Input
Amino acid sequence: MRKGIPNLGALQAFEATARLGSFSRAADELSLTHSAVHRQVSSLEQRLGVALFVRVRRRITLTEQGEQYATRIRQHLEQISKDTFSLMSEAELGSRLHLAVLPTLAAHWLIPRLPDFQRHHSSVSVSLSLRTLPFQFGDHPFDAAIYHSRAFWPGTVGVCLFDEEALLPVCAPFLKPAEQMPAKLTHLHLNSRQSAWRDWYAQAGLEYQPQVEAGPRYEVFTMVLAGAKAGLGVGLVPRFLAQDALDRGELVLTSDVTLPVPESYYFGYPAHSEPSDSLRAFEAWLIETVKTQQRKT
Output
């Protein structure tokens, strides 16, 4: 055991208890007894000299220090898991890629195209995890990320995949107002684009009405798309996400006015480390996939 580094079993017991909020549930997950998990966590607290949990009768809650420690330990355990799976794999290209992706881009653009990558690189397993905010690669177990930004994240290299270009106001066909404007419809909002509708009204030269703010708010574009298709209101979504639904008649434009977007979608990875063969292969496939898409349009 390295001096100062706690036992891995104690760290696993602590992380599971912190995540699940219960010694019993952590014991079930780790196939241990309740007393064994409790003993591991208590031993860890004694070793650190820090209280990680507040215990009130049979309930436990993380202390502020415990919550911070749990977050970092979880990241390190994920990295250990990723490194272990990578080592165990015997595939010729290095076997596994773990990508951080935006949820709607992954569901509507990336995953439908991944079978083509697998046909050309059947030995490479591509795992996806959702991340909607910027992060430091050193703190997370990801080989690369596909993200939305105005430029490459600091300390990363890669390729700009394509521009978002504009957001379109869309709704279900049976909701389309005769005057071709969405003002009378419920407005669907995206939490990460709080000013989008206000900016759209400015772009259209229209007065922004207070009732616009009353519409529901969603975490990801997938929810906005689903809400628009279901007739819950009008949403602003990128053209590349809405185009198929527009072509099938599942959605219609409520106005010809679109909202320009300066950001683009990037594929990036740490600049300080040498990319694996599998990462290079995936990057080359992404570039060719985007070129093919652009030729078709």
Remarks:
- Confidence is low (pLDDT under 50) at residues 90-94.
- The two ends are 59 Å apart (CA to CA).
